[in-house]
User: Fold these one by one.
Assistant:
Number 1:
Amino acid sequence: MMVWLILLPLLWASLAFMLGPSRGVWPAIAGLVAQLWLAFALAAEIVGSGAAMHAVGGWGAPLGIDLVADGLSAAMLLLTQCIALPLAVYAHAYFKRDDPARNYFWPLVGFLLAGLNALFLSADLFNIYVTLELLGLAAVGLVAAGGGAQQIAAALRYLFATLVGSGAYLLGVALIYGTYGTVSTVTLVSLIGADAPDLVWIAGGLMVLGLMLKTALFPFHFWLPPAHGGAPAPVSALLSAVVVKASFYLILRLWVGPFSSLTVVASLVVWFPALLGTLAVFWGSYQAIRAERLKMLIAYSTVAQLGYLFLIFPLLASAGALQAGIMQVFAHGLAKAAMFAAAGTLIKATGQEMVAGLAGVAERLPVTLFAFGLAGITLMGLPPSAGFLAKWQLIELALSQQQWVIAFVVLVGGLLAAVYVFSVLRQAFLLAPADSVVTPVSRTLEWTAFVLAAASVLLGLRGVELMQLVGVT
Amino acid sequence: MTAGLLFASVGVILFALGVAGVLLLEHLLRRILAFNIMGSGTFLVLVGLAQRNGIADPVPQAMVLTGIVVAVAATALALALARRLYVLTGKLELSQDDEA
């Protein structure tokens, strides 16, 4: 089951590539439906019988590569497939026949998903490096697919950032291998103790810093807004919703796995990601409030929302912090995919990229605007959305450990999110100028965004099942 | 100092030089070359540190081979993008303004 989650996207991506430019939509959608089913089946199996393991080709660690699925990876797999399927349907309706971005969209998305799924399942530091690069190169290809000078420049900036990030990670892996002679995360958990040599501390620092660069945590966020704001809407949605979460997942995995005994010894280290996360929440929100272009506003909002994820690190010692973090990953993933999809529809219909050009869309495109608003509710953290659940848990944990600062950051961040979401909504409800033209758009575009946004709100009602799944080890 | 440690130290220096190049240089070709130097540095560390009692460990060598394949693919993609940028803008550097 695990192997098919990696092989299926590789298969349909290769098929789409061989069929030629802009073909391969139906194999992709069929493959995604099957992947979604597999992800649900895997999650159900794990809740029933605990973490599952698969030795690729019958060769287990230390010589071979192990695939391990526990609650955390099953949850991430589920989120990825849940977002990818609606976005694929959206993308099929979004691209015009002569759009150059459509040419290699399907193969690149397939390789991207194969990289993601493999990353979530790998239990081998070097294999994780390979999946990181597969993911990064496919994502850069998708950003560049539009072919404009600005998109190429954004793609190059993204490429250099992602290569430096994975380079630092690989150097860390090299130091770990040099010290312990293994790269299996399962074996390393017992090998790395509190008395680990300095080399291991340096390795851990390099790996975490490299992954932070790839997650676009403040102050490493410089590459994200041009790349996510300039790409075609379905690509922006996919990158903002899941790709940046993959490297966050890895940081979390390393933090609570192989490096857990290091982070327990150095109690001050846990404040480093939290400090950067706090700055990200404020700086990202400030830039989003100031942004004039709609997609830039959403891209900066991603920078801010990623900050919340790093606030959980000082709280990880207590039960429930991991669940709060993953709930925020789900809430932001679904909401941001919906928001970029809705923004793509709005821009397509009005022909305007600016927030100021949105006047009157409330009348003409009510479903899309409703989707945008619902996604906004999740970002602000209003009940009953998944965002509310994540922030509620985070605040509760912070207060029970007397970390007032974290609770304060979460509350202020929610208010700042309200400012930029309402600045868009306010503009949309203004009367349209007499000369404005709204071209009719396909209903598929409107409803796929709505489905994603509704999912981000309704997930709040089914949060218990998700938290139960994340808790399985 | 053993030969392995020497390789690893040189690797770390090359890595640092490469990272500085990727981050600080303007010209795209130089940045791509700097990325390759950075990668080679990592490979030296990987192979150099894993020598025990003068006997080379084959596992990191297999890793380095995989790493070289990845580096070649990344370099090819970077070159293709740089070439495309040159065709479109006539420049081989990224402009400074962040609101691209």
Number 2:
Amino acid sequence: MTDGARSATGTGDDPREVATHCPYCALQCGMTLRAEAGRVTVAARQFPTNRGGLCQKGWTAAELLDHPERLTTPLLRDRPGGELRPASWAEALDRVVTGIRAVQTGHGRDAVAVFGGGGLTNEKAYALGRFARVALRTRHIDYNGRFCMSSAAAAGMRAFGVDRGLPFPLSDLGRADTLLLVGANPAETMPPLVRWLTEQRERGGNLIVVDPRVTATARHADLHLQPLPGTDLAVANALLHVALTEGWVDREYVAGRTTGFDAVRRGVAGWWPARAEALSGVPVADIEATARALGTAERAIILTARGAEQHAKGVDTVTGFVNLALALGLPGRPGSGYGCLTGQGNGQGGREHGQKADQLPGYRRIDDPVAREHVAGVWGVPAEELPGPGVPAYQLLDSLGTAGGPKALLVFGSNPVVSAPRAARVEGRLRDLDLLVVADFLLSETAALADVVLPTAQWAEEDGTMTNLEGRVLRRRALREPPPGVRTDLAVLADLTHQLQGGAPSYRLVHRKGPLLTPKQEHGATPEHGAGAVDAADPRVVFAELRRASAGGVADYAGVSWERIDENDGVFWPCPDTDGPDTPRLFADRFGTPDGRARFHAVEHRPAAEEVCAAYPLHFTTGRVLAQYQSGTQTRRVAALRRVAPEAFVELHPDLAGRLGVAEGEPVRVVSRRGDMVAPARLSPGIRPDTVFAPFHWGGAARANSVTNDAVDPVSGMPEFKICAVRVEKVTEP
Amino acid sequence: MSEQVVIIGNGMAGARLAGELHARGGDRKVTVLGAEPHRAYNRIMLSTLLAGKVGESDVELAEVAGQGVDLRTGVTATAIDRVDRTVATDDGDRISYDHLVLATGSRALVPPLPGLDAPELPERVVPFRTLDDCRRILAVAGRARTALVLGGGLLGLEAARGLAARGLDVAVVHPVPYLMERQLDPAGAAVLAGTLAGLGVTTHLAVPATAVRADADGVRLDLADGRSLHADLLVLSCGVRPDTTLAAAAGLAVQRGVLVDDQLRTGDRRISAIGDCAQHDGAVSGLVAPAWAQARVVAQVLTGEDPLARYRPRPPVTRLKAAGIDLAAMGEPGGADGEELTFADPTRGTYARLRISGERLTGAILLGDNPAVGTVIQLFDRGQPVPADRRSLLLGRAFGTTAAEPATSPALMPDAATVCQCNNVSKGALVGCWRSGARTVDAVVAGTRAGTGCGSCRDAVAGIVGWLSEADSVEVAR
């Protein structure tokens, strides 16, 4: 028992402590929370992923628990344009239920939509999908992971038949002879992961980073390829071209374990390195050196992240690197492979259990009749009553309040006003709704637009499971009760379900009684369908149902129990049997496709959706900084983080700044066809002179997503966050 | 009835156009006539094939045969009837077209030398142009130990490099005083000749050939200076000539190539020409990038995607890249206008000459290890302003983008300097922690959280703790 479950037996008396994981990114660092004298403190904890490391976000995570801006009562807006005012839960939930009924009566079931998040626990993501399909019976549910993981997910599914971010444990990174990171900046986004990169280089490994900027991660690299944004796919195809001409392709593996190589081989024959060089600016010599490092290594790993994926050709770009990995025979070879670095805390689990528009729990497809039968059986409803597929996140947001679009939206764990592309337009769509409901623990920019705001519990106040970037299912453990007036998301969903189905409100859910974490039921036992909201609000009960719903699916959790997680530093899915093994490494013998072979797909570079021109001559790309997380709703309110990263900025090359007459710290305006942002200039020789960068964590005038392009990938629906055309202007008047 | 498009030629240009048309969909029947009996292949990879690094199947290009495209390989177009709008083929067919695209490419020039005047070249004398040429060269090279290459231009040097990589002793004969005179200057060409010598390729410059004599033992090349070189194989790389026979016979305007406008149309609006056979704005390119740009314009116009699309030639970049050789040449590096940047390290085979005018690159020669080559090509191709610090164009990322600061001695580091980025811990905070009683690295780490994120500052933290320990002991001793 190394996961600290024994200490997780708080009785309600101070001091007590609990072994849990960080609330932020997908690395899910192990941490210990301790409550003493009314204060909650964080300590780093040894866990196989973070090995005792924490970044500043993790260390300061508890500051939000008793933050003065924390929401502890529901808020209501009585009329459009009015102010939000405090309200009782009874009034707030009644308003939600009445509003949903009115909209669905007037416009049909699909007129109510649900928007989830990649930070929700597995239990909440699962319950949200079930709530949409069974209680609301709407096809419209999607989530912010569409902006995050969807391109890698789609590419992984079509190549491997399985989408698990890393199909191997994180520790494999430390032993790779060559490690290629494409559009990944873990030194800022998940710092403790860099410990594995350090180990890798100390063992003599070769670290190669592909990024248009000299990032904190690129500074660790033995070789840094700095392509023009939007040209990664050309580089991938050229790498495979070199691997072919140099004889590094694993012909035996390609013949025995894959299909479709000939089309890829002929496609990349047209990508001689000099062609990719002219397009990307990456020297032929560096392309060759990278191909050599990958092609001649005993253990080689290729990882992509948002830099490669957040494009209107994100799926094809990832596929280009998957093709390279397959041609070199990496996936399934011990110590080698392809993976993607998942972003949000439960970005993995959140994309498996039914909050995606086309998906049912267990990574099943909602248009698959067998999958519908199975899940409908678990939910106790006829399969024909389940709605069909909805639409991807941006398409959903862009249709809100329009003639054919939803008129009501319920948001859980997301802040699209800051995080969606072309955000001013999304903000307008949200304003056009008849009813906007936001469940959050802080008044995010999206919550500030809502008609009803429901205050929810924080991570230290709830139990559940998260699935980290390795596909390892972890336990989130509650340290304390939510403050008075605050409910868990599960309790909110349970009550809404109950009331929508005609039941009376069950306000006894406001506080759980009795000791935390004492199992109320045998694990695996589930209530009869239609049982009270009390059970539906219990994460342990929800997880038991999730296990049954996922059984037999791609992401099979049937054999995962909370106890088993506690005993084993987590459990890697698929894990179909309680008594059988879990799966730390996928693809050793076969892939998840019907014939067990991985599938090559020929992919061609294509230009960005919006190319530079005389009026918008610069490339604009967005990303993250170390001290902020996602839309910043949480981290912008932590004093220590605000000191480090107090405001947005626009990073530009000194040569470009010189031409614009802009000095360090002076405000500049970045203008695209869709909108603009204003932030101080930050001069850096580490960015290409034809490209400017801004972090997307801020709202208001400094909102980078006012500028970004809403063109989306035709397969994944991923918006093109990473490249659009802009001009930069010196701001003469503030 | 759907529109009939006929493309004559299945080379780099014709095959590309078929793909571009297919990618745009629509109700259209596309017929591609390829005189060579092969699938479409990448001509640029033929020198790699010569080098023996890849097999024939590896140089095949993606093609769209059978997907609304009727690809007929081994079929030669023999005549165009512009009145009936048909193309006659050597297998007796007549194919109707609504639009015809000539992508007939170019043919290798055989120099008018005694010994090369018969209709068939001697067995051991082969031009270097097509896959079949490659096969013939390889058939001879398999039992050859020495080879001559006549012509020291880009293709000749690629052939020489490929044959040298097979282990042959190769000599290049070039009538001009220096190699690749269309792209290089004498100094750069001298560095290139040195590089080639190191790879087993000798060069004979400034000397025309006067005759070829094939015999049972091999082939003999007589030179104007009286020397006579002997080898097992002679490869001809004396330039190419656009293949305009069909166009001329059909009465289309032809100079060096088939004359086309900005939409690649000939004088007959139903006939276009692209690639090596086309002459646009006085120029015949002979390179892939313009051919593919032209194919795109024709596809945009024919499919109606952009009926006003225009071909805008971009200044070509010549690139020679093989093991041991890295050459990029573009624009006009010579002349007296503007600024000139140079760097030469002939011993290591490195040479760079760049010309800048009006803050734009107007020409460059880069040979050998030039880390900025990707940047230089992009700046030239896109016409973007050059960096204020010109050194970065010669030395690449060595300037301006260096990684972490060099390790400063702890004593010299300002208190405000951030030691741990992940947890934003300054040197001052570490010193403060020490002053408040922490005496080991672990204690300072626990007190400040420095080094608990990515861990890469642990050495720096240890260095500061060590410095504080020494300073402390000095103070105690005093």
